[in-house]
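Lab manual, section 2.4: Encoding a predicted structure.

Procedure: take the sequence of the chain (376 residues), apply the prediction step described in section 2.3, and record the output as structure tokens. A sample record is shown.
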Amino acid sequence: MSSKMGMIGQVVGRWGSFLNKCVAINYQTGINAILKGPTKLLGVVSTDTEFSPGDVCFAIISIFIVASNIPVFHFFAKTTGPRKYADILEAMVNLEKSLHEIILPKTYSFLRKRIQKSYTAVTSSINLVSFILDHVYPPVLFFVGFSSHNPLSIMVQRLIGSTGILPSYLIRILVGLETFIGLMMMTSTFTICVLLTTYGIVALYLWTLLIIPKNEEVQLDFHVAIKVHNRLGIMTKIHTEMAQNFIVTCLHHFITVLGSTVGMFILLTHLVKSDQVSILIIFIGIGAIVACTVTEFALISYLAKCSRASKEFILRMGRNHGGDKYRRKVIRSLLPNSTNLEVISSLDTLVNGLEMKYFLKFLDRVADSTITLLFG
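Recorded output:
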């Protein structure tokens, strides 16, 4: 506990005097200097063009979102991509059905009541994510598409060179409609990736909780419990393979660190140096920080819960059946089931899975990256 608090103290301590140093940053001049080079090469605008902070924020967020979804698009663009996705999803569903078949209905009903609280919590989390994807994202994407800060709309207007009010609004409507449709398609494709990832993690977590031995009258048979644990291991390997094919799910740490860093940088530089505070920019900065932090925390939290539940299962099985020589050998051969959603994994992660201390690394890296951007 003391080591964790020490790490938190280091993260917080690095922000000690940043406000005084931020005053030296010329936000608008720096942004325009960054954007003038590429635009001059493209011949879209002259080097004297000034970009508003809103244009810059929308451009950065657009590049970030599109780049994050490229691996998923690449997977489904391949001939074998959709077929492989369907086969793996079907295999995972069939494996879960087989778990129902090897547990007696009466025993399953009793054990299901025991994990009802965890089941309700997981269901509420999934319903919240579904609500955000179905009802929050569309209005936000609609606003982004038809906003005056839409990067595509600005680029088309610069290329055409339209100066009239009517042509400008016509371009804005047409490009905005295409942008909105494209963003909705992008969100739908990414949701498919989220669906399989969530299903694999939740199935492992709830089924592991179900088979953990408790001091109760109704218990799973030793061989049935081991069989369920091993099949969950197979399901986890299938899920991990699919996640690695998506690539973006294994880059969750990099993406959330990058998104939080960009949001923090935009927010701090705008608040410290800008003469006029823009509610839109503040909303974008805070939204990026909150979205990335909550996503990373939730993902690491459930991955850690899966690993912890699996280790608890092995520990309690050892306590209950350690007196039998054969069963003791079987239990010692077991490894905790954990979903590996990392590009490069350490030996500790492979054996024990992710733990909540990994989230502290996320906070530390966001702090380091933001400070580097501000003062580097």
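Check your result against the sample. The first helix runs from residue 2 to 13.
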